[in-house]
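Catalogue entry: protein
Contents: sequence, fold tokens
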Amino acid sequence: MTAMGGEVSVHVDAPPAQVWALVSDVTRIGEFSPETFEARWTRGSTGPEVGATFKGHVKRNGIGPTYWSACRVTRCEPERLFEFSVGTKEITVNNWGYRLEPDGSGTKVTEYFRLEAGLPMRIYWTLLGWARGKTNEKGMRTTLERMKAVLEQ
């Protein structure tokens, strides 16, 4: 990953198709994420495909402030990769995604984030990025462990 991002991986005892169905269903993120407690498809989008839009309802750091984030699917390769940008069509703030790799009888799932490299984000990352990066990594681990528990039931 770039210096302005991070990632966390876990092994899940489930096939890539089953993992894909979960990570690409944004309407279920509230079951797993410690910050995003709900999401819904918007503007006529009904599922994962490049260009589909959705919004996530976020409670920053799990305590607030609470706000909606506009998101757009930017990469969508079934059973392999699901990525989306956060921001507007004109300005992307950051990107989140899931990479899936067959791993023995299961799947290695990697959740990652990457901030855009514009000057405001570089300044932010220089001043506060180390702390937010740790928070994001902790949140990604929580999200993936909760997904793992559901997938391995």
